[in-house]
Write a structure and sequence with these properties.
single chain, 281 residues, 80% helix, 0% strand, globular
Length: 281
């Protein structure tokens, strides 16, 4: 990975953690994800006239990704409803890199070399530590953990699908515009059905912050998709999950969730892992 690709993925990590924090902060999860998914769809629709239409070979990937993203939103809503942000977010994000490594090896024929494999493994150990050390002193909420793990599997799935799709599209901007335009429709339609006459009323108090979350979401994933056209999928997936550290910091500062020495040690492992991956690049 070049310094430019690395910087893009790290910026994506910060913006991703930020929009997830916004989604968690909105108490009514359906309202939060309606604004973020629906806002992302509007941004995608606004981009479409100015970007190329993805090539024909990208459309099967794009359609599958839209379905997987819908499952991701549903599971992420459940994770945030059941667990703390500082717990659910690290587990969901930390599950993905190893699964992406396996899927990329099978479907994209990208087998990591020794340095990259070591970096991914060490990074995942650090990410797991950030998540699991938060459980000490209390009984695990297995429903929340299960939802977060399932969310991580959907992240791994759409990461690989979109990595292949954006490479076949001929335009990363065209792919992100059409993906956001398509995937963001279902949740607002469902919310409109559920809330009916109250739809506008419940959205209005959170509209500004929700649309900010939508813009951050599009920016975060757009950067990742662009990076996937420039480097292999597994290292990008692992580096992107440095957002867990940002998420843990947000949880500590804004949600008053504990961030102690064990998580700092786990963060150190993550930094070592990133260094190994960059050495491989």
């Amino acid at each position: 990975m070049t310094p430019l690709v690395t910087a893009a993925v790290l910026l994506a990590a910060v913006t991703h953690a930020s929009w997830n924090a916004i989604a968690h902060r909105i108490t009514d999860k359906l309202v939060g994800f309606t604004l973020i998914a629906g806002g992302g769809s509007l941004i995608g629709l606004a981009m479409m006239p100015f970007v190329p239409v993805p090539a024909a070979g990208a459309w099967p990937y794009l359609i599958v990704s839209a379905v997987v993203h819908l499952a991701y939103y549903v599971l992420l809503m459940r994770s945030f409803r059941l667990g703390d942000f500082g717990q659910a977010y690290p587990i969901a994000r930390g599950t993905a890199p190893l699964v992406v490594t396996l899927l990329a090896a099978v479907f994209a024929h990208e087998v990591p070399d020794g340095w990259a494999a070591a970096g991914i493994a060490v990074s995942c150990a650090g990410l797991t530590g950030v998540a699991l050390w938060g459980m000490r002193g209390r009984r695990p909420n297995w429903a929340a953990i299960g939802a977060a793990l399932a969310t991580g599997l959907t992240i791994a799935a759409y990461t690989v699908v979109d990595g292949l799709g954006v490479r076949a599209s001929g335009s990363s901007l065209g792919y992100i515009a059409w993906l956001m335009g398509v995937e963001g429709v279902a949740i607002p339609v469902y919310a409109l059905h559920r809330r009916r006459g109250q739809f506008v009323t419940v959205l209005r108090p959170f509209a500004a912050v929700g649309l900010l979350g939508a813009a951050l979401s599009v920016a975060a994933y757009g950067l990742v998709l662009w990076a996937q056209t420039k480097a292999e999928l597994a290292p990008i997936a692992a580096l992107r999950e440095s957002s867990i550290i940002v998420g843990a910091a947000i949880g500590a500062v804004f949600f008053k969730e504990k961030f102690g020495a064990p998580r700092i040690a786990a963060a150190g492992l993550l930094v070592v892992g990133i260094g190994l991956m960059l050495h491989a690049g």
